[in-house]
Amino acid sequence: MKALDVIEYIFANFSNNKFKTMMSSLGIIIGVMAIVTMLALGDGMYSGVSQQFGSLDLNQIIITPGQAAGGMLGLRHVVEKTPATFTDRDVSLLANTPGVTEVNPRIITAGTVTSNGENASLSINGVSPLTEKELAQSIDKGRFLSPSDTYAVVIGSNVSSGTFKNNIVPGMSINITSPLIGLSHQYTVVGVLKESNGSIVTGDPNANIYMTTAGIKGISYMTDYSEILVRAGSVNSVQQTADAITNTLNRAHRNEGFTVTTVKSFSDAISSIFNYITDILGGIAAISLVVGGIGILNVMMLTVKERTKEIGLMKAVGATTGNVRLLFLAESAMLGIVSGLIGLGLAYIITYIIGQGAGFSMPISLQNIIIGLGFGFITTTIAGVYPANQAAKLDPIEALRTE
Predict the structure, then answer these.
(1) Residue 185, domain extent
(2) How much is the pTM?
């Protein structure tokens, strides 16, 4: 039996039994649509959240006072040890730690910023200008801070335009007041940063104000560092560098607590969570395919009974047992392919609608297409094996006697 004859026979049968074909394929259409949509939804959620996190610097290590425990990301603090006090001595120790290429200490506080009579509560960061290479390269207007600056600030793009009615540009003055202790001082804006992606780990640089550690004394009595950002030589050596940092700080702060967090570990944890969610969504959708496969099994079994006489006639005119088995198996597989393609088309429409509503793209990857169509094809083929064998085993004489 030629392949073209098989295909012609299958489509002729589909055409003659449109309603039955449509009903038997409905389960597979829904199943493929569901599994592709669910997988795309998981990928879209991860992509959307990743955009919110921004372009994470996987080389970065964040060191903060206080010992963290409980939870993957160290969000619950314990009081077993007094929080460590970080000073220039720690900065020097970290700079000489193997694997460390950059050390950026910061003093972070909150301040009420006043411009043209308007107030806004913003994050104030005291930094060391000579070590903040990434910030220095992100200047959009004006210049970056110099070590000699005391009452000068560099502001994020959102602070410059969007926070206040009137834009703030280099050369203008703003007043910053500490809401905790009441200290207040006037600062001159010398630069505006380019807009950049923030992250849940490092915060939003667009909404920050940066000044020198000397300048922050105008609004705060803080002298120790709130956090120290360290950069490792490579992504592959981040954990090794973090372990070396922990050993270094353990020697300097024997009875004090601190937390060393790698951005890479955070990123890996997020990836694991979303992979888990995607697997669950895909598993739920696969149930629809199983149900669709059972439906096809029932329909194909019914088809064998309805076409018993036809099968007997085919065998009487020379069709072999293998020909009949191939015919029914191919019909089932073809039903799976056609249904899968229809389900894939519907998945494209649904993911587009969901993506537009959610505000993030939900592209269907080639991998998800292969998984969806593959599951649909395999399910229908397996469902067609038993009916095909039953049809092939029919005795031609008995089959021809069937009314």
Answers:
(1) 106-223
(2) 0.62
